[in-house]
Amino acid sequence: MLRISNPWSVEMLRNSVFDSYQEISPREVESEQIILVEIDETSLKEMGQWPWPRNLVAELTEKILFHHPKVLGIDILFPEPDRTSPDLIAKQSQNLPKGIKDLLASLPSNDAMLATSMRDKPVVLGIAAGYGTQNKLPASSSNSIVMIGGDIRNSIPYYSQVLRNIPALEKAVQAQGVSNIAPDPDGLIRKVPMIYNISGSLVPAFETEILRIANSNIPTEVISPSSEIKEINIAGLQLKTDHLGNARIHFSDRPNKHTVSARSVLADEIPENYFNNKIVLLGVTAVGIADYTPSPLGQNLSGLALHAQALESIITDSLLTHSYISASIELGFFVLIGLVLIWISNRYTALELTVAFAILCWSIVLISWGSFKAQKLLIDPTLPLALTLTLFLIATSAGFINEQKQRRTDAREAALREREKEARIRKLQNELMHTIGKSSVQKLSSSIAHEMNQPMAAICNYTNTAKRLLDKKEISQDTLRSVLGKILAQADRGNDILKSIRESAETGKTSIRALDVNRIIQEEVELIKDVGEAQSVQIILDCDQNLPQAQANEIQLHQVLLNLIRNAVQAITHAETESKHEGEIEIRTVRNEDGMIQVSISDTGPGLSEVEKETLFKPFYTSKEQGMGLGLAISRSILEALGGSLWVEENKKGGAVFYFTLPPNEN
Questions:
Q1: Residue range 455-488, pLDDT digits in tens
Q2: Which residues pair with 224 in a beta bridge?
Q3: Is the CB of residue 172 less than 8 Å from the CB of residue 118?
Q4: Which of 7, 254, 318, 581 has the greatest number of CB atoms lying within 10 Å of its CB?
């Protein structure tokens, strides 16, 4: 709506951008065809104050035309007769003698002399369009426009009257054109009308007539397929104007390059043929008399210089264009930017929207500048940028509002989830306490069963051995006494295990004392052999006799050694079943580099897979059909509680090697 209605504020903003383009890149191409003859301060000082007598203007005109210019455009209005003409002086001076009056009356008037200097010469006079109560129509010498197409008179600005030159001059000259240029509301001159509508008649501008007379003196064609101007054809020059018939000037930063003072022309100080085949503009430029108007480049230019800038822009094909093509591109920007930003805001984050906003803004500016630089086409970037900024602010504001709403919704949902979570936690805590109780009982039961399994198995084996010997009546009292002693020893061991478990459950502590590791290993090996579990296995002991005593619990250490030796025997027994070869177990004790007592139990069994190595020490993991999966887990827990460790490695001879360490007794 802003683009179509085009209010003054929008127009000024647009013009400011276009002015900045001209400041950055003023017109570089200049015409050598235009020369300005200025009635400047030097001329007034030499020839007298303005207005000059018209016989002096006639002399100046003759001297210029003597050099055969293409056309002489005089930007001076002569609406009243010259008061310094001899006949008017005779009428106004009542005290002059009659003879002098008659002599003055017989002399030609200054206006006639000026008309004579212009007659049948390529001269264009300026006239002024304006408003008034009297409809003063232009002279017939200014009717040189032919309309091709629709009637454009209602589409261009209307003026009610024109300030004409005196009839003698109008009849003498070949053409007249409107020379007054109206500035924009901000006081700058940016464009010149090429045609005017004065009381329903189309009147050419000063520049239009100068170009027409300079190029074959044929009528100017206004091409308008509808009721709006599309193109103005001036003797082969095709001008792209706006729909009002205005040509937009591309200003040079070097105005008045080809100028000469009127004093120099009158004094015949110019070179011969200086004006030959040139477009010469004559006008007043003296400060205080001439009107100076600022240009977009910040220069104060006289009316004569403005006409020269306009003519140079036309001749060098440097006019700036802001037409329906520009408006269509700008509206296309509107649609494209709107769709892109809406699409991005609905699919991407605020950061990506900001990046897209920056890219779109720079793209608009670069396209606008590129069209100006390359094609002299003015594309307004201000409204597309304003639309981009507006849509960006709307999108970000909407996103912020939606985000705040979403945050409040999320906060409510989070609070609800938190309450539900607390309720679930309380429920789980109750269930967990119940499960922990059951699990503790199960673990305690499993631990007791596992610990008591070994002494009970030993008691059973010893009892069965004694029973077999008694049945055969081959047992002596010493042998029976030895077997019964071993049975009692295992019963005491079982009792000690129960006592240790009870103390640990009640106090959380285990009794620790100095122990001979080699002795305990020897006892466990004998137990294994006595119960017949290692009949087909060779057990080799390699014990360091200088080994210090270890800090440990005797029952727990027996348990660890029995678990590891029995596992080795079972691994070898399983391997013998498959390979039929006798196995070997080597038990070795040393003091390692860290000062710890290290025990290694190696076997020649099948070894361990990578999966078994990772899960071997986890509770309830077992590879045996009747196993409980607690032996190694309990053994590692015992050793770590004593300050040692338990691990397994591959045996170079085949099988596995279990290592464990214990801290030595330093007392």
A1: 776 777 777 777 777 777 666 777 777 777 777 7
A2: 149
A3: yes
A4: 318
Max CA-CA distance within the chain? Answer: 195
What phi, psi does 74 have (nearest 5°)? -105, 110
Among all chains, which residue has been given the structure tokens 């306009």? Answer: 310
Contacts of 536 (CB under 8 A, 6+ apart): 573, 576, 582, 583
- The Cα–Cα gap between 87 and 472 comes to 181
Do the beta carbons of residue 659 and residue 647 sit within 8 Å? yes
Dihedral sign computed on CA atoms, order 250, 253, 258, 263: positive
pLDDT tens digits, 615-643: 777 766 566 555 555 678 888 888 888 88
**13 exposed, middle or buried (CB, 10 Å; 0-12, 13-18, 19+)?**
middle
Distance, in Å, from the CA atom of 142 to the CA atom of 202, rounded to the nearest integer, reads 9
612 φψ region: left (φ > 0), alpha (ψ -120 to 50), beta (else): alpha
Sheet-wide strand order for 145-149: 145-149, 220-224, 231-234, 237-239
Residue 54: alpha-carbon gap to chain centroid: 69
* 259 bridge partner residues: 36
* CA atoms of 606 and 578, how far apart (whole Å): 10
Bridge partners, residue 321, by sequence: 377
Tell me the residue type at 552.
Answer: A
Question: Tell me: the pLDDT tens digits for 182-192?
Answer: 888 888 999 99
CA–CA gap between residue 6 and residue 4 (Å, rounded): 5
Q: How far apart are CA 473 and CA 467, in angstroms?
A: 10
Least Cα distance to 489 among 515, 533, 523, 450 occurs for 523
Q: Who contacts 415 (Cβ-Cβ below 8 Å, separation ≥6)?
A: none
Distance CA 12, CA 248 (A): 15
Average pLDDT score over residue span 327-343: 81
Write down the H helix ranges in 173-321. Answer: 206-214, 262-266, 303-315
**Side chain identity, residue 437:** G
417, two tokens: 């989830």
SS3 of residue 13 by DSSP: helix
Q: pLDDT tens-digit profile of 509-546? A: 667 888 898 888 888 887 777 666 666 788 888 898 88
- Residue 351, φ and ψ in degrees, nearest 5: -65, -45
pTM of the predicted model, to two decimals?
0.59
Structural domains in the chain, CATH included, are: 2-81+124-322 (no CATH), 332-440 (no CATH), 512-667 (3.30.565.10)
pLDDT band (50, 70, 90) for residue 54: very high
Q: What are phi and psi of 189, to 5 degrees?
A: -95, 120
d(CA 565, CA 531): 13
Contact yes or no for 189/293 (Cβ under 8 A): yes
Q: Which helix (H) or strand (E) holds 429?
A: helix 382-472
Beta bridge mates, 127: 178
**Tokens 């057990």, residue located:** 539
